[in-house]
């Protein structure tokens, strides 16, 4: 009878290490962002809009790697919170664009402070953080088949 292949060990799996690290990171943000009344998905949405305000919903979803069924309710909640507003594009009425409100723009400094607090808890050197970011970005783009 052939010997069965050795069962992979959980702690040896890159996928599990990435999963656990992602959960731990989001959980670290949860406390800081909770004080601001934000969830992590709302935080990253604001990050994207602080970089490029007035972006189309489709482009925003692609940037955040969220599908419409996830992004639409997220934007609806953020609109109810007074952080963003959705408007029909003046160039193409079929498209909806997302804009920061003054309240959404004003969240930049407190959210940056929350980010700095979490970054300080990581205990990574700037070089280690950059290497980790570069490698995870490469892994993501490779698996998604994007540049």
TrEMBL record:
GO BP field: response to stress
Domain HTH marR-type: 11-141
Xref: Pfam families: MarR (PF01047)
Transmembrane segments: none
Compartmental location: Cytoplasm
Domain of life: Bacteria
GO CC field: cytoplasm
GO terms assigned for molecular function: DNA binding; DNA-binding transcription factor activity
CDD domains per the UniProt record, alphabetical: HTH_ARSR
Keywords annotated in UniProt: DNA-binding, Transcription, Transcription regulation
Protein name in the entry: Putative MarR family transcriptional regulator
